[in-house]
Amino acid sequence: MSNFKLKTMKTIKLLAVFFISSLTVLSCSSDDDHDDDHDHEEELITTVVYTLTNNADNTDVVILTFTDLDGEGGADGVYDVSGPFTANATYTGAMKLWNATETPAEDITIEVKAEDDEHEFFYTNTAGLTITKTDVDGGGNPVGIDTTVDTGAAGTGTLTVILKHEPTKPNDGTATGAGGSTDIEVTFNVTVA
Amino acid sequence: MKNIFLILFILISSFSYSQKCNGIFIGEITDFHNKKPLENATIKLIGTNKVTISDHKGKFTFEDLCHGTYNVEVSHLSCETKVFVLEINGNIYKAISLEHHLEALNEVVVTANSKIEKTSIQQSVSKEVIENFSDKSLGDALNTISGVSSLNTGNTIVKPMIHGLHSSRLLIVNNNVRLFDQEWGDEHAPNIDINSGGRIDVIKGANTLMYGSDAIGGLILIRPENYAVKDSLFGKSALSLNTNGWGGNINSELVRTFKNGFYTRAQASYKVFGDFEAPDYNLSNTGVKSINASARVGYKSFEKGFDAYYSFVDNTLGILRAAHIGNVGDLVRAIESKEPDYIDEFSHHIDNPKQAIFHHLAKIEAYKRFKGLGKLTLQYDFQINRRKEFDRRRGELRNRPAIDLRLFTTSLQPNLRIDAFDNLKLNTGFLLRYQQNDAISGTGARQLIPDYEKYDFGVYATGVYSLNLFSELSAGLRYDFSRIDANKRYRITDWDDVYNYDELFPEFNIGIDDLEYITNPKFSFHNISAGLGYVRHYSNDFELLINYGLASRMPNPSELFSDGLHHGAARIEIGRLNMKKEVANKLMVSLERNHQGFGFAISPYYKYISDFIQLIPIDATTTIRGAFVEWEYIQVDAQIFGVDIDVDKKITNNLGYNGSLSLLKGDNLSDDIPLIHMPSTNFSNELTYKNKDLNQLSIGLKQETVLQQNRFPDYNFFTFDPVLQDDVYVDISSTPPAYTLFNFSSSMNFNAFKTGNIKVEFNIENLFNVSYRENLNRLRYFADEVGRNFNVKLKFNY
Questions:
Q1: Which of A68, A112, A126 minimises the CB distance to B725?
Q2: Per-residue pLDDT for B677 more than 70?
């Protein structure tokens, strides 16, 4: 009987030691410091720059810029359109995305290009423009970083740029049909003169 | 209502009506030492043929007794038999206590219905029900209780709600430790392995002061099992397999007890599910993986003892892939499409978005009884909660969590229970708690919840007084002091212009860094809470309970500091520094009958909550991603009232009926509109056939109906869709239609080995494969709920 008791006491002690040591190990398994560490938005896209150059006249450049340096929330973003398009002309478009909160500003376009099978730009407008995507991903589906824009008659309207993350590819060519989640959706007021 | 009066009338008349052979003798048998009710004690009136046994509450009743003197013999398995003389002259109630000899204390009986206090309005989930939910979550098991519902994110993230209140308004206490696991978020479910507990109590009424001042919704107590003091080794293992999600759960526990009072228990469970399936499609990326373990070691005797407990929970929860959206336009398309945007083949793989959560909980408790005073308990505990939320991100951020928080909580709680007085029991103690939240760097995303430190001090006293043989009164008072000290960065425009904090809280601003202010908000809160309870016993096992509670809650870190984007709902959630504390007055009455043949509980309640903090959509804001809905924490005065009804009826010896009904109405009194996210009317009916002679065969069919919530605030709005060049209607408020589900259950027991047995279960959930959506599921815009599931469970007891 006493033998048994001794044995059980030993077991209990062993268990207690195991228990306490496991707690000690766990409580020390901290993988972080306690500094006033601060994360900035690395994923952020602060700036959209759509540069369109007239194929017939490389001094005719229209630059559409959207800037929202503090990201979602905070101050509102700012639109800037450098000037009007020339009517009945063909422009070559280049899309650039930046995260300007980093120093130097990070070119997000590189990331998009590297994962072009998971991204696609969609362009819609009410200004009589015909926008054609001229680049393709590894699967032969359009990406939309490079574009050709044919202008029509003079007029005004809007131009919307949408970047979809993980859309269905191939898709019906519309942002709605492609699904996925929207990373960018900006609308510029444009003039064709 | 008519019936209640009828019942009351019969009750009252049964007391006043007495004739020569109409004496009633009601008794209650308790353990002399701990006042716990003794079940199955035999009570004999010597010289007559009248014999009865006490029920699970230690109560018994003799009726139709002729006036005269009787010798009463009371015996119980582990007690000395007691004989006493009783004179019957009308109706009599007698409290009888039996002496357990410490050496003969084979088992401390914790009966299925023992309440935390007798005046408490509460309901319990038994070990048996817990085992039925072994591969589900705590919230699913609690959902079986009337008045308890859940706020879900998909079907694996289930957040319990009592009377429409959730998050910080519910105290979840696991093994006497209040759970702190970033419970403030709508999509943060409690991190508890349901298999680790012995029973779960839901306290809807006011007897919650020992655990905190802020139980505005109620208290959920997960309690361990009690073991007999004897040499024994036993255990059980359970395996559950399911067709929906092609997964299941395995749970094993082993208990070793010793005659000298020592005991130890080890338990572990592993759960894995792949994508769940709605009737019409696969719910891609909704799988779950969960590894849990708990260990317990302790010693108990009447005079002193200790209990050490440690539990570990590791959950990986997939979130419906289609619910990851970019902006309001995506949300509108999801609402309109009726089917998820992303449907893939079935897989056990859990991709992003997902949550990965660790939770460690450890406590040590020791007690000593002092003669003529009571029981002094000292408890120390700590918890670490690490929450990582992974989003669908670009490039190298892909495998980094978008949210990474670590919450450390530790507390010390001495408690003194004074039970030396005959009619009065007092319980008093204090609490010291320290909490630290660390928003871990490296997420590459703005912090949703900042770093903070929080200190709590609480002191409380509660008392239960026996007014007379039939009624008890309880009262309690608690004071809490809390201080929170946070470090957070605010955008300059937000601080100065949007929230006007530059005028309200200039003292918090301690620096500037580029476009942000570095701030150090500090707040102190004083909370007073109180509770009053009354219970009156009537004959035939009727009981009337009345509870009043005053509860105050300081705003939680999310309500104060939240500031960021939730992809799951295309929303930006904003907390406010100028939040005041929430104060609730609650009244609940319950008429109950605990009887094997026909039992019921009718529990109406009313809650008035001033400065009720609710998260509501207030505006749409335009970002580089397009439009987002801004959800802000707003304070309003609110009332919530309703009634919970439970009925159980033994139809024949083999056939039983269970029914429940919950009615609830929540009003935002400040704006004179309904409150958001209130559970709608729901009811259930269940028929169970049991045959003890046929391997304890049990067959059950349960119907559950949830009606459409027609009372909801209309926060719908229009947003401009640049693709369509038109305003589109964003219907985020309308509620899904009513639905009815049927569940089938069956089980049998077989003897196996020498002393063990095997229980085999076969169950079908959502028998008719109904497609439905639930208003209280945050993903209801994106997909249907889970369809039919076949389940097989094997349980071994050894």
A1: A126
A2: yes
Q: Smallest Cα–Cα separation from B740: which of B665, B681, B674?
A: B681
Q: How far is A97 from chain B (nearest CA, A)?
A: 11
> Domain spans of chain B?
21-104, 122-218, 219-283+298-338+355-797
> Chain B partners of A74 at a C-beta cutoff of 8 Å?
491, 493-494, 498, 515
Question: CA-CA distance, B567 to B393, in Å (whole number)?
Answer: 11
**CATH hierarchy code of domain B219-283+298-338+355-797:** 2.40.170.20
- Residues on chain B touching A27 (C-beta within 8 angstroms): 360, 382, 384
C-alpha neighbours within 13 Å on the C-beta side of residue B31? 23
Considering the domain delimited by B21-104, tell me its CATH architecture.
Sandwich (2.60)
Q: Do A56 and A89 meet the contact criterion of CB atoms below 8 Å apart?
A: yes
Q: pLDDT at residue B266 above 70? A: yes
Task: Give the pLDDT band of residue A28 (cuts 50, 70, 90).
Answer: very low
Check if B576 contacts A (Cβ < 8 Å).
no
Write out the two tokens for B91: 């109706």
Q: Any CB–CB contact under 8 A between B306 and chain A?
A: no
Give the residue-averaged pLDDT of B640-663.
95
Beta-bridge mates of residue B791: B242, B763
CB–CB of B722 and A158 under 8 A? yes
Identify the structural domains of chain A with CATH numbers, from first to last: 47-192 (2.60.40)
Asked if the domains at B21-104 and B219-283+298-338+355-797 fall in one CATH topology, the answer is: no
Inter-chain residue contact B394 with A108, CB threshold 8 Å: yes
CATH 2.160.20.10 matches B122-218: no
Q: Do B384 and A71 touch (CB under 8 A)?
A: no
Residue at B788: amino acid letter: R
Is a pLDDT exceeding 80 seen at residue B569?
Answer: no
Note the pLDDT of residue B34: 65
Higher pLDDT pick, B84 / A55 = A55
Confidence of residue B47 (pLDDT cuts 50, 70, 90): confident
Out of B17-21, B253-257, B448-452, B544-548, pick the least confident.
Answer: B17-21
Instruction: Transcribe B378-391 into DSSP letters.
Output: EEEEEEEEEEEEE-
Q: B306 to chain A: which residues are within 8 Å by CB?
A: none
Q: Which of B628, B627, B729, B734 is nearest to B676 (CA)?
A: B734
- Kindly determine whether residue A111 and residue B395, on different chains, have CB atoms separated by under 8 Å: yes
**Whether pLDDT at B687 is above 80:** yes
Query: With 80 as the cut, is the pLDDT of residue B480 above it?
Result: yes
Q: What is the pLDDT of residue A15?
A: 54
Count Cβ atoms below 10 Å from residue B606 Cβ, excluding itself. 14
Contact B168, B213 (CB under 8 A): no
- For the segment B60-106, what is each residue's pLDDT rounded down to a tens digit? 888 888 888 888 888 887 666 777 778 888 788 888 877 654 333 33
d(CA B552, CA B530): 9
Element (H, E) at B791: strand B789-797
Number of A:B CB contacts under 8 A? 162
Cβ–Cβ of B515/A16 closer than 8 Å? no
Q: Are B623 and A71 in contact (CB under 8 A)?
A: yes
B413 pLDDT higher than 70? yes
Give the SS3 label for residue B129: helix
Q: Cis link prior to B557 (omega < 30° from 0)?
A: no
All residues of chain A having their beta carbon less than 8 Å from the beta carbon of residue B625 are 72, 182-185
Contact predicate B75/B41, CB 8 Å: yes
Contacts (Cβ under 8 Å, ≥6 apart) of B291? B269, B270, B271, B312, B314
pLDDT band with cut points at 50, 70 and 90 for residue A22: low
CB contact B232 to A (< 8 Å) = no
Residue of B nearest to A184 (CA): B625
Integer Cα distance of A120 and B151 in angstroms = 35
